[in-house]
Amino acid sequence: MHKAQSSFPFLHQLAERAGEVILPIFRSEMTINTKTQTGDEGFDPVTNADRDAEQAMRALIHENFPEHGIMGEEFGSENVDADYVWVLDPIDGTRAFISGLPLWGVLIGLRHQGEPAVGMIAQPYMDERFYGDASGSFLSRGGETAPMHTRDCTAIADMTLSTTSPDMFPPDDLQAFRAVEAQSRLVRYGYDCYAYAMLAMGFIDCVIESGLQPYDIEPIVPVIEGAGGCVTDWSGNRKKGGGQAVAVGDKRLLDPVLRRLAGE
Does domain 156-261 have CATH number 3.40.190.80? Predict the structure, then answer.
């Protein structure tokens, strides 16, 4: 595997395998447990669908690319110093999942030499796959594939802003987010990874979050970049790893958002 784009077909295989596991469980009886509670997040659910889907994707990776590393939400990391490392979140948006809401997704990313290189946001219930790399991003749905492009938006006052929940920000970060929120035209909550998909499609302009894990954001970075946007930390560095993140569809919007987050 010499080019990130050559992994697109395998991303689809992983998404298909995950969907086969998850869909029979969605909106049916499921086993719900609570992970160890940290910080102020409180109830942190995990289901049998999360665990079984990650196991299924790991098995497929081991079978096809035994030399690759894996980092997953449910079963940790292995061989993460490899040139290629798969970054997996089997269900991003488990709270939505257990509530019967379709605003969750399977996140599948591939690092190359430590950098996010290719990624996919898959929504099996709605038969949608948003995927891309630096050369372009695409939406596959109903057997058809089309390119995705972010939209023009240069001012906070004109933008649609999203975050999963203000409750997930620590106090200082929440204050910074509120400063941006106060100037935004429209703010929407509660969409987890689906907000980033809508940013790549040109319906949302900015997503701001903090307290992320690498598997929450790294698979999303190439999707946004391929559609014309960018994802950085709150200092403007290209996003990798966890922590704070800002995604914008129009790169000209990044500087005013970062300055507002910094209290300027």
Answer: yes
